[in-house]
Structure formats: C-alpha cells, structure tokens
C-alpha cells in the first residue's frame, strides 16, 4: 500500500482533484513552451547548435574519466579543493564534514537538483545545521516543507495566494496581500540578512570546464552569487556528467540552455568561478550516485547528456496535467522518468509509463536525447525484471494474445462492440474502466473497419 | 579503492566507444552594421536601460548627480574619475550592503543576448555588482561582438578568478510566472555604451 501512494497515477489523481488549478498549470507551462519556440525561431542555426550540443556531450561521455581527471588537476592548481562522492550518503557526509571542520552554523544554498537528489537538506537539518534555500521558488517550497515540482520553476504548482499565506505565517507579510512584487520584496529583504551573515554557501554547477578547471552557475535572481561571494566557504556540487571539454563549448550550451528553459536568450547571470577569492575556501564535490551505472546501459546512457533545461517538462502533456509531485522524485517530467529507474528500479518502475510516447520531449531536447524511445525501452526492461503490477502484466499478455491471432481479434472486437451497445453502464463504471474517469466513451460503431472495407471496396 | 578510483574505474569500464569531438563552426550570417542597435534593443527587452553616449562627460555628470543626490555611489572605473578605493577585495558583505549605485566597466558585450562580461579585476569586489541596489555598466562601443562563440574567443577563462555575464537586472518569475524585477541582485541595470 505504501508503494501505491508513491505511484504516478495515484498521485496524479490527487493533483487532478482541483480541475481549475490543473488547467492553469497546463496553460502556464504551455505558455513557457511557446516562449521557448519564439526564442528558438529567432536563431536560424538552432538545429546546428543542437547537433553540436549533442555531439559534444556524446564525445564527453566517451572520454568522461579523462575529462574528470583533467578538470580535477586544473581546478586544484586554481586553488579549488576537489572531493569525490560515490553516492548520496558520501556527498552529504563530505559537505557535513566541511561544515563541522569550520564550525559553521548558517548555510545558504542556491538551486542544485543534485542536492535535492541526495536529500542534503534533511541530512544537514538532522545535524542541527540551518540551511536556507535562496532561490525564491525553492525558498517557498522549503517553507511549506514540500519539494520542487519542476527543476527550473520549483513552485509552479502553487498559486500566488498559497505563497501569500506561506509568507504571512513565516515572514509576517500582510494577510491577503497576493501581489508578487510585494511578496518577492519581502523575500529579498529577509534573504539579504541571511546572505550577509551566512558563513557557507552551497551552489550547483551548470557546466564544469575540463580545460580551465572552473565551473559555471546560471541564475536569474543572482542568489548563487550573493551566497558564494558573501560566504567564507563555497561548496559547489556536481554530477560527473556536468563536465564539458573546453571553454568554447560554453558558447554552444549557454545559447541552448535558457532559450530551451524559459525562452530568454541567456540567464541574467552566467557566473564563471575559477579561483576562490582572497581568503575564501572553494570546494567542488563530484558525485556519481548511480551515474556510472547508467553510463553502462547502452539504451539509457544518453540520458546523461541532459543539461537540466526543463523543456521536456513544459512540453509534456502528461507532466502538465499531473504536476511534478506525481513523479515522487527530485527530477520529475520525461527526463526524470528515464533517470529515476536507474537510481531505484523498484520504486520508480511506474514513471516510464507516465507518458503517451508522443515524442514531443525528444523534439524539444536541446542535446537530442531520445527521451521517448528510452521511456519505451524502460517499459520493456522493467517488465522483464518483474517491476510492473500483475494487473498490467496480465493485461499486456492478454492484449498480445488477442492481437496475435486475427480470428480471435475479430471475435474480441465484435464482443466489445456488443458489450458497449447493450451494457454501457459496465464500461461507465470507473472502478472497472479507468479510461472513463476523465472522459466519455464514444458511441460504438455498428461494424468493424474490416467489415466496412469488404462491403465497400468496389 | 577510494571513491575517486572507484568512480574513474567504473567510467572506464562503462563508457561508450570513443566518439570524436566536433569542431564547432557555427555558420552565422550576422550583419555587423546592426550589432550595436541590436545589442541596445535586446538589453531593453531584458529589462535594462541602455544609452549610447558620444562623450564620457555625460556619464561623469550622471555619476556626480547621484553623489550630489545623497546616494551612496561607488565608482570602480578610472574613466569616470576618482575610484572609491575603500571598496576592495577584502570588503566584507556588511560593509558593502548599503551601496546604492555601483559603476563598473564591462569588458565586452554580446549582440545576440545583451550579456556583458564583467571581470573580477574591474569590479574590485565580486559581491559589488550583486549587492548594490542599482548597477551601472560602462562599455566601449567597439567591444560589442555578435554572439557567444565570438565572446569566448576573446575571453581567456581562468586568467581571473571570477567573471560573469550580466544580461539585465536581477529578476524572478517564481510566483505564478509573474515577472518581478529585483530578486536578490541589483534592482536595475543601466548600460552606457561609449563611442
């Protein structure tokens, strides 16, 4: 039963209870997708950029160990401390140790999906360390004890009145004042004190450059920089796949990233960190957490090319109507559905089925990941390993049997039409027929296409 | 085996067959005569104010007006006169917190997206462009390039400890996708293009 609660369709049903909100969510994300389209159409060489993005990532994955070694060497000579973490636990322990060694009590953190994946906040909080998420959307969900529902737009599942209520209880803003300008200003004022007095800042990494031993962090709010430049210690966390070979490759990826994400030509700040400032400690934690395992799966290794733009979320008809929390993972959406089964096959076996396989995700992906093909391949791999429910397995077996024998298929079709005509209530029963939940069944046709064809072929 | 060795060994076993690195040559047909107007235009779309001035005196007057108006103004660029030496690499965040307006020199600007490259050596303190309430960037008009590819040809990463592309005022749309200017960084960006 516990497993059922963490099931995509069960969690979507909860999200779908508020139809107006689902409509808003759907339309808003589609609007972001349209902004992406407009931005992309302004770049005539877009397809060429995508191809380069894809080829650079393919090349990098094929030489990943060498690039990590090169990055480590250059970064060390730049004065950056490099740490390696095999899994989430070691990642959290490394950070915790740096915090303890420096007797730090207050930590600010900008957006990093990796630290979400490793559940760093809970770990540090359990050790009595205060961590504040400084990205406005992440801060909102942190106050509400929720998780981001989108990798780029963490609070996209919330309405302004939700934010207003949350800020009223935590920041004592006026009750009922839902003005986004007013609410964001309240967060700015509150966070400024946190930045100024923070001792340690954690950031993510968008790109780490092997050639120069530095890394790039992109934000619109400026929160990563406020944290990193104010604190005495900066820790940047990256998955092994964040490496790119050369500085010139940033030209390709920064052109692709934000246009795909929000339709902006570039984020407001693209910060290039190469050396700690005078008197500062700078650390980079390089994390595996299952990525090398995914690298060894020929059908799925391509997922490691992801630059976390979120375009596949915004375009996905299932994501837009089920919400990010229905994916019960740090990374939701189509890309999450192909990454998460690698992290935990049993717990995330439902995710590759949360798709219509329409292929829109693959079409918008700036680094040409074959997302919908991988969703389909995961379904097969998971079914073979016995990770799908017995109902689904039985249904698939029956379906396969019926469509394998034309005569049985024709009998089944006739029976189906007969039942639809004479016992419509049986089909309208939502417990038996879950297809009926959000839709009406069509009027059954009098005859099959085959019968019609034979009658009319002259 | 420590984690580093384990990770590197796992990659060595699991990585795909070697694939060559592409030579990135993007065919762009930019009309260089329109780069500057395009740069000014995109900055405005990004929410910045962009002004093209013939004479540095215009910017100096603007700086003096801000100082005379009682605004805590910091100049880091010698082109505009006396530099505020009290702000330096060691200035702590609480000391920088009250800065209202900061003038900083940009190194180059990009016509395709309005981004301007700021180097650590020009900003005196890494926090200054972010913690000031209002940021003013002075950029030589001859330093505009077409796109990101051109920009990276002219920047040598790693020469300086830190550098940033700034493409507008700090902003967020995290509340219901409503655009709010002035998230955590500077509330406004004004760019002076100098002939």
From TrEMBL, chain A:
Electron transport keyword on record: yes
Gene Ontology molecular function, alphabetical: 4 iron, 4 sulfur cluster binding; metal ion binding
InterPro entries linked: 4Fe4S_Fe-S-bd, 4Fe4S_Fe_S_CS, FTHF_cligase-like_sf, Helical_ferredxn, LUD_dom, LutB/LldF, LutB_C, NagB/RpiA_transferase-like
Organism whose genome encodes this protein: Ginsengibacter hankyongi
Keyword field: 4Fe-4S, Electron transport, Iron, Iron-sulfur, Metal-binding, Repeat, Transport
An individual GO BP term: lactate metabolic process
PROSITE patterns: 4FE4S_FER_1, 4FE4S_FER_2
Domain 4Fe-4S ferredoxin-type: 296-326
PANTHER family according to UniProt: LACTATE UTILIZATION PROTEIN B
Protein name: Lactate utilization protein
UniProtKB/TrEMBL annotation, chain B:
Domain LUD: start-end pairs: 102-194
Protein name: Lactate utilization protein B/C
Species this chain originates from: Ginsengibacter hankyongi
Upper taxonomic lineage: Bacteria, Pseudomonadati, Bacteroidota, Chitinophagia, Chitinophagales
């Amino acid at each position: 039963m516990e497993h059922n609660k963490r099931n995509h369709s069960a969690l979507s049903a909860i999200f779908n209870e508020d139809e107006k909100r689902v409509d808003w969510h759907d339309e808003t994300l589609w609007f972001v997708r349209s902004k992406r389209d407009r931005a992309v159409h302004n770049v005539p060489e877009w397809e060429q950029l995508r191809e380069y993005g894809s080829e650079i990532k393919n090349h990098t994955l094929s030489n990943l160990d060498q690039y990590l070694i090169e990055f480590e060497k250059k970064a060390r000579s730049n004065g950056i401390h490099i740490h390696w973490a095999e899994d989430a636990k070691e990642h959290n322990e490394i950070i915790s140790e740096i915090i303890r060694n420096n007797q730090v009590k207050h930590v600010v953190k900008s957006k990093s999906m990796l630290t979400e994946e490793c559940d760093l906040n809970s770990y540090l909080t359990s050790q009595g360390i205060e961590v504040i998420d400084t990205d406005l959307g992440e801060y909102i969900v942190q106050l509400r004890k929720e998780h981001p529902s989108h990798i780029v737009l963490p609070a996209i599942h919330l309405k302004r009145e939700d934010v207003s209520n949350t800020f009223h209880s935590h920041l004592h803003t006026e009750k009922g004042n839902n003005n986004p300008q007013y609410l964001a200003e309240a967060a700015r004022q509150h966070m400024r004190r946190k930045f100024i007095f923070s001792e340690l800042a954690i950031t993510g990494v968008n790109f780490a450059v092997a050639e120069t031993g530095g890394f790039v962090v992109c934000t619109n709010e400026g929160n990563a920089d406020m944290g990193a430049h104010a604190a005495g210690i900066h820790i940047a966390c990256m998955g092994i796949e964040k490496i790119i070979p050369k500085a010139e490759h940033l030209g390709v990826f920064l052109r692709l990233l934000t246009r795909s994400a929000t339709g902006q030509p570039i984020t407001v700040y693209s910060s290039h960190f190469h050396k700690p400032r005078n008197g500062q400690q700078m650390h980079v934690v390089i994390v595996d957490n299952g990525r090398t395992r995914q690298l060894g799966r020929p059908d799925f290794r391509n997922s490691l090319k992801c630059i976390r733009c979120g375009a596949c979320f915004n375009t996905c008809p299932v994501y837009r109507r089920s919400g990010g929390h229905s994916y019960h993972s740090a990374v939701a959406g189509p890309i999450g559905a192909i990454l998460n089964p690698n992290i935990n096959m049993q717990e995330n076996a439902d995710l590759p089925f949360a798709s219509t396989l329409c292929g829109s995700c693959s079409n918008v992906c700036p680094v040409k990941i074959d997302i919908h093909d991988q969703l389909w391949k995961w379904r097969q791999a998971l079914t073979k390993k016995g990770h799908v429910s017995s109902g689904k397995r039985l249904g698939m077996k029956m379906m396969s049997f019926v469509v394998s024998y034309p005569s049985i298929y024709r009998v089944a079709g006739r029976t189906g039409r007969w039942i639809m005509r004479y016992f419509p209530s049986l089909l309208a029963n939502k417990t038996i027929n879950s297809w009926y939940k959000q839709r009406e069944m069509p009027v059954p046709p009098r005859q099959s296409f085959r019968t019609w064809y034979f009658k009319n072929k002259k | 085996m420590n984690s580093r060795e384990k990770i590197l060994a796992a990659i060595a076993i699991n990585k795909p067959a070697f694939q060559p690195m592409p030579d990135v040559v993007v065919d762009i047909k930019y009309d260089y005569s329109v780069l500057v107007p395009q740069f000014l235009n995109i900055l405005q779309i990004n929410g910045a104010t962009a002004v093209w001035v013939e004479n540095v005196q215009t910017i100096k007057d603007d700086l003096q007006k801000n100082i005379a108006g009682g605004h805590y103004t910091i100049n880091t660029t010698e082109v505009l006169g006396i530099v505020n030496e009290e702000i330096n690499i060691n200035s702590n965040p609480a000391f920088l917190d009250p800065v209202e307006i900061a003038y900083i020199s940009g190194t180059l600007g990009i016509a395709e997206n309005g981004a301007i490259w700021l180097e650590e050596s020009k900003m005196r303190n890494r926090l200054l462009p972010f913690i000031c309430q209002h940021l003013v960037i002075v950029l030589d008009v001859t330093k505009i390039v077409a796109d990101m590819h051109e920009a990276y040809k002219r920047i040598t990463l790693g020469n300086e400890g830190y550098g940033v592309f700034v493409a507008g005022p700090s902003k967020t749309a995290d509340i219901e996708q409503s655009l709010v200017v002035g998230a955590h960084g500077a509330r406004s960006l004004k760019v002076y293009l100098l002939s």
